[in-house]
Amino acid sequence: MSKIWKVAVIGAAGRMGSEAVAAVNQADDMELVAALGNGDSLELLVEYSAEVMIDLTVPAVTEQNVRFAVEHDIHAVVGTTGWDQERLSNLETLLKEHPSVGVLIAPNFAIGSILATEFAAKAARFFESVEVIEMHHPNKVDAPSGTAVHTAQKIAESRAVAGVGPSPDATETDPDGSRGAVVDGVNVHAVRLRGLTAHQEILLGDAGQQLVIRHDSFDRTSFMPGVLLGVRQVAENPGLSVGLDRYLNLD
Amino acid sequence: MSKIWKVAVIGAAGRMGSEAVAAVNQADDMELVAALGNGDSLELLVEYSAEVMIDLTVPAVTEQNVRFAVEHDIHAVVGTTGWDQERLSNLETLLKEHPSVGVLIAPNFAIGSILATEFAAKAARFFESVEVIEMHHPNKVDAPSGTAVHTAQKIAESRAVAGVGPSPDATETDPDGSRGAVVDGVNVHAVRLRGLTAHQEILLGDAGQQLVIRHDSFDRTSFMPGVLLGVRQVAENPGLSVGLDRYLNLD
Amino acid sequence: MSKIWKVAVIGAAGRMGSEAVAAVNQADDMELVAALGNGDSLELLVEYSAEVMIDLTVPAVTEQNVRFAVEHDIHAVVGTTGWDQERLSNLETLLKEHPSVGVLIAPNFAIGSILATEFAAKAARFFESVEVIEMHHPNKVDAPSGTAVHTAQKIAESRAVAGVGPSPDATETDPDGSRGAVVDGVNVHAVRLRGLTAHQEILLGDAGQQLVIRHDSFDRTSFMPGVLLGVRQVAENPGLSVGLDRYLNLD
Amino acid sequence: MSKIWKVAVIGAAGRMGSEAVAAVNQADDMELVAALGNGDSLELLVEYSAEVMIDLTVPAVTEQNVRFAVEHDIHAVVGTTGWDQERLSNLETLLKEHPSVGVLIAPNFAIGSILATEFAAKAARFFESVEVIEMHHPNKVDAPSGTAVHTAQKIAESRAVAGVGPSPDATETDPDGSRGAVVDGVNVHAVRLRGLTAHQEILLGDAGQQLVIRHDSFDRTSFMPGVLLGVRQVAENPGLSVGLDRYLNLD
């Protein structure tokens, strides 16, 4: 008989949290033992014997939630932002006292998005040219997206290691900036369009050929397979892991 | 029996000209009666009874070629650039003396590209958001492409007539210009990628839906169906026509 | 001051109906005067002076709803299926007694989808090759989609009128049927993929070029702009109109 | 100073061969020492001290060419088809007598195409649904393409190893076969379109997201970077390698 994980969701009333509650309830190998909202006591995690905590709360409380979990030997899968270097260092210190506990903190749980970045970086050393286009809903306040910047950085690293030069570009006149942003030497374009959610396309070109890697996030459910994968593997990965790519065993 | 057009190609040794010679030779309803290069006498058009002249030369000689054709009651299909307002006015004056002669001057003979622009402009009044992405080989010196600028202008006109406001955009921070150029209120992005030729994509978005219109020009042969269509219809369109869209009867 | 339409939604508790209620509430030029569900009396339409009725009910009751509206000089915008030829004929007879009343019955209110089909049909006579790919969620029980069949039929009609022959195809061996369905001479491919909703892509090819027209329906909200456009124009279109394309003035 | 490879091209007058001659001539780290056509003696390879032979000939002569190279301690990069299991076995036997010689036989030298297949196989275990669409020029006689079949097989293997079940599909009625071919449980669709060359798109879908991996081969030059990469690495890979993916170090 396969393992049934006892899972608690913290921040269960939020938009992501309520999706996580639904996803855990639908997973055959998980049992939802607690769904905590604002003001609920963390002691309930212990009372209901949670093995893994999913934290989808807010920056102000995520650190104390995760520290509570680690101190009670509960693994944690964390999608909340706000983990700066100091918080991460403190957490690692605490984890040394609980060497069997695993914590996964991931800024992005959409597996397809992580794969797109990973594949683009791997392919980038074989192509003369590479550019990134990200497309989002028009209510987004920053451009380009953090994901696109991250992808451009990974591409740049991969090309630097392989000794590949910059993408060729003979542009002499571009009065209005149509060539977009240049992030670590990679041109990045941001589209804002009603109807879209979060999309990224990486174009790689060489003589006579093109490779296109595209990821579409249509809604929040796109994060749930990644969250569940985190729950299933966090116990086998003691210590701190930042980024879901560590769990995907792509190499 | 259907009509067989007697066609002459001027500039026959050039890159576009040689494609036109091949295209005319392959067309069942055309006979190539002359293929003139640099230094050949225009009198050969008369000698060989050409009915339609295809001019694919250079700005320095195209005007005298076309005027010769009109004066000898030969229709002309012209893909050469360099026709400013003065040249066009002079040609119209000449055409009045030869009311049965047709001249088509077109900056772009790729039918698909013309359709893409036309469809985008028609659709633009029904969508909250619209942006343009053009993609070309990295040896291109200007950005964005003339075709993309033309498309943005036609989109802007269509939206102005319909009273549609600007595309929504909440962007507050974009330090490196990832949002691209703004042409007549329409965001235009230019990609340069080895392996590509000339491509354009128009994205139209509204609540819950997206319409994408994309054109790919893979090589120079893409212009030939438009040139042949011009040959077949120029006699029925006496006077001066600028732009192949006039012949496509899209309305 | 611009006109404020008094609108009633019938079938207001259903999935489409509740979206329509929300859309009417958000429209500046409309006032929701009634939202009727199962069992509510149609007399409320009269009591609250509805000018336009939106019917999003079920085949069993849509006919009596629309007839009630026409008899009380209320215009109707109808998204319910089940209108066979007999029902349509009876409705037209009734409409002759109420010559100022307009009824719009549309199988598809996604404006982008209607435009995609329309543009594909217009372009199809200029390209040697054309194929259709539709993509839907994997719970769909029929393939290909009705929209794709409709698109293929319109393409075939357009090519027949223009005297364009079949798309070239040298396939000799295709043991497993990878070339898809052939609908009125047009190859149609159906993809089923978790995460997708309703998408259609028309590929048109000629020497050296490709034109791609793609529509994505991400969710039910994609139908609302079409429903509101129907409300705004139904009074100006007395009699029966089948299909929203009649209102788009594309020519 | 970096190594300059002395390279000979066999089949130099053919379509692929002439591209290879041009590519070697343009490579800074290669010197073309011989370009052999039909009837030229293989002894010229020895006379001009070739270190690597590129064989782009025909099935009837490729085996004797490669055996000659191995016997004279010349590495070989082979793009010719016709290498059945017996030929490969015999070659491996011969290579044991020349343990420092490397031979690379690859059915596909388009690096982007190999990457697309590789990435699709890696991603396939994370997604509920996966389908393959290949698009080619309409003169192709077989469907689906060998590359698409290969991709489907690699995807199927990857999913089998990970214990992933078949893609969900509720289709009940599909009278004309729009769902395409099923290759090892993966639906494969073949499009034939004038203007296209060789293209492949792999669609992977899960709740709320899609990953698309697409490769476009626009012309024969797309194979040359892969051929040159083979030349540069064949000496470091003694023995027989089948498939360029072995050289890409993707893991």
UniProtKB/TrEMBL annotation, chains A, B, C, D:
<feature type="binding site">
    <location>
        <begin position="11"/>
        <end position="16"/>
    </location>
    <ligand>
        <name>NAD(+)</name>
    </ligand>
</feature>
<comment type="function">
    <text>Catalyzes the conversion of 4-hydroxy-tetrahydrodipicolinate (HTPA) to tetrahydrodipicolinate.</text>
</comment>
<keyword id="KW-0560">Oxidoreductase</keyword>
<feature type="binding site">
    <location>
        <position position="137"/>
    </location>
    <ligand>
        <name>(S)-2,3,4,5-tetrahydrodipicolinate</name>
    </ligand>
</feature>
<protein>
    <recommendedName>
        <fullName>4-hydroxy-tetrahydrodipicolinate reductase</fullName>
        <ecNumber>1.17.1.8</ecNumber>
    </recommendedName>
</protein>
<dbReference type="InterPro" id="IPR036291">
    <property type="entry name" value="NAD(P)-bd_dom_sf"/>
</dbReference>
<feature type="binding site">
    <location>
        <begin position="79"/>
        <end position="81"/>
    </location>
    <ligand>
        <name>NAD(+)</name>
    </ligand>
</feature>
<dbReference type="InterPro" id="IPR022664">
    <property type="entry name" value="DapB_N_CS"/>
</dbReference>
<feature type="active site" description="Proton donor/acceptor">
    <location>
        <position position="136"/>
    </location>
</feature>
<keyword id="KW-0963">Cytoplasm</keyword>
<dbReference type="Pfam" id="PF01113">
    <property type="entry name" value="DapB_N"/>
</dbReference>
<keyword id="KW-0028">Amino-acid biosynthesis</keyword>
<dbReference type="InterPro" id="IPR000846">
    <property type="entry name" value="DapB_N"/>
</dbReference>
<dbReference type="Pfam" id="PF05173">
    <property type="entry name" value="DapB_C"/>
</dbReference>
<feature type="binding site">
    <location>
        <begin position="146"/>
        <end position="147"/>
    </location>
    <ligand>
        <name>(S)-2,3,4,5-tetrahydrodipicolinate</name>
    </ligand>
</feature>
<dbReference type="InterPro" id="IPR023940">
    <property type="entry name" value="DHDPR_bac"/>
</dbReference>
<keyword id="KW-0457">Lysine biosynthesis</keyword>
<keyword id="KW-0220">Diaminopimelate biosynthesis</keyword>
<dbReference type="InterPro" id="IPR022663">
    <property type="entry name" value="DapB_C"/>
</dbReference>
<keyword id="KW-0520">NAD</keyword>
<comment type="subunit">
    <text>Homotetramer.</text>
</comment>
<keyword id="KW-0521">NADP</keyword>
<feature type="domain" description="Dihydrodipicolinate reductase C-terminal">
    <location>
        <begin position="114"/>
        <end position="244"/>
    </location>
</feature>
<comment type="similarity">
    <text>Belongs to the DapB family.</text>
</comment>
<feature type="active site" description="Proton donor">
    <location>
        <position position="140"/>
    </location>
</feature>
<feature type="binding site">
    <location>
        <begin position="106"/>
        <end position="109"/>
    </location>
    <ligand>
        <name>NAD(+)</name>
    </ligand>
</feature>
<comment type="pathway">
    <text>Amino-acid biosynthesis; L-lysine biosynthesis via DAP pathway; (S)-tetrahydrodipicolinate from L-aspartate: step 4/4.</text>
</comment>
<feature type="region of interest" description="Disordered">
    <location>
        <begin position="158"/>
        <end position="181"/>
    </location>
</feature>
<feature type="domain" description="Dihydrodipicolinate reductase N-terminal">
    <location>
        <begin position="6"/>
        <end position="109"/>
    </location>
</feature>
